[in-house]
UniProtKB/TrEMBL annotation:
The keyword Signal applies. Keywords: Signal. This is LysM domain-containing protein. The gene is ga09721. The keyword Lipid metabolism does not apply. Pfam families: LysM. Residues 160-204 form the LysM domain. Residues 1-30 form the signal peptide. InterPro entries: LysM, LysM_dom_sf, Plant_RLK_LysM. It comes from Eleusine coracana subsp. coracana.
Amino acid sequence: MPPTTTSSSSSRSLLLHLAVSAAAGNATSSAPLACSEVSRVCTAFLAFPAAAANVSLLESMFDAATGDLTADAVASPGYAFVRKNCSCFPSRTYLANTTYTIPSAAAPLNATAADVAAAAYAGLAVPPPGGAAQRPPRPGAVVALHLLCGCSSGPWNYLLSYVGVDGDTVESLSSRFGASMDAIEAANGMAGPDPITAGKVYYVPLNSDL
Ligand SMILES: *[C@@H]1O[C@H](CO)[C@@H](O)[C@H](O)[C@H]1NC(C)=O
Ligand SMILES: *[C@@H]1O[C@H](CO)[C@@H](O)[C@H](O)[C@H]1NC(C)=O
Ligand SMILES: *[C@@H]1O[C@H](CO)[C@@H](O)[C@H](O)[C@H]1NC(C)=O
Ligand SMILES: *[C@@H]1O[C@H](CO)[C@@H](O)[C@H](O)[C@H]1NC(C)=O
């Protein structure tokens, strides 16, 4: 069953602590989804692995409003779903803009702002081209990032950006999100039920609004 929309008040009641986790290491291995119709815009969803949801932090990280955040603890424990407008950028890739404010917690001395931001988004974000994100992660600095999102080019309404974790299979994603295995394979250009790579973004077709 696809996760269903919760009310703003129940989203708000979730307590969020970021799992800035091991998955972040592979963040840059995901390529954005290609597009051809520059300036096409659609509604997209992103699955963010939050151990519990601090709504104000999610709103800030995804430049989203409370009503754009949903969660379903039964269908996908530990995930928050963010609704974003996704666009075909001039680079002919589907992306959405967001910004990340570097927190005051100590970052490794040799990390860049891009490293810290990529770790925070657990693989859903990449820095835009240009040097700004390569600066040291000064607390309070605002870093522009691109979220990996997608618009459907198949017979389904939305794509959900989902970062693979150890143990995932096409079959497990299919039963978790209610998309057929064929649809998941088609949306991701997979030849068959290939293994799911931990840390890589997959686009899961959805027919209903999350
Ligand atoms: C949400 O998380 C941020 C960053 O960790 C923290 O500053 C803020 O106090 C938290 N808000 C709530 C309501 O817990
Ligand atoms: C998407 O864009 C529309 C039109 O500009 C806007 O009204 C809406 O709030 C946006 N939705 C999100 C989730 O940003
Ligand atoms: C994303 O941000 C860039 C840089 O600020 C801006 O030029 C572009 O119009 C934005 N695109 C969208 C779809 O918001
Ligand atoms: C950054 O420093 C840590 C600890 O000294 C080290 O383990 C890591 O490999 C370094 N990373 C890079 C990219 O140099």
